[in-house]
Amino acid sequence: MLNNLNSIIIEGNLVRDPITKSTPGGHQVCSFSLASNRFFRSNDQTEKEVSFFDIETWSKLAQTCGEVLKKGRGVRVVGRLKQDRWTDNSGKNQAKIKIVAEHVEFKPVFAKDGQAAGQDAETSETVSIREPETVF
Predict the structure, then answer these.
(1) Cβ neighbours, 10 Å, residue 99
(2) Residues in CB range of 100: below 8 A, 6 or more apart
(3) What is the pLDDT of residue 114?
(4) Is pTM beyond 0.90 here?
(5) Nearest alpha-carbon partner for 38 in 30, 28, 46
(6) I need a surface site. Which of 8, 80, 82, 96 has the fewest CB within 10 A?
(7) What is the CATH number of the domain that holds 41?
(8) Number of domains the chain is built from
């Protein structure tokens, strides 16, 4: 049986520092939120639309993201959409969609002089860990 296509690429900046936790099974998970800007023309003016997305990383990628990422840092995320569904305390059905990252590219951090801190302005750090697929 083949999986349906579920893939997303998104760029933006972290809106707060990431949170890293461990599951009861000992796996690390790192969560962070990303703001992604979209600019468009409307009535001869440039308008800005900001969207916010919750990102989740696992295992080695989670550990690295927890160590490297800070609020404001730019990233490019490649991953998949995941919907969590639950029933709240009042019995109402709830749902939330998040992005589970399989690859995260860290954009360069620029110093006040405009040069990338600790590296050439043209480079960026990339960490890519593909989690093993679960087969049912």
Answers:
(1) 20
(2) 55, 56, 57, 58, 79, 80, 81, 82
(3) 61
(4) no
(5) 46
(6) 96
(7) 2.40.50.140
(8) 1
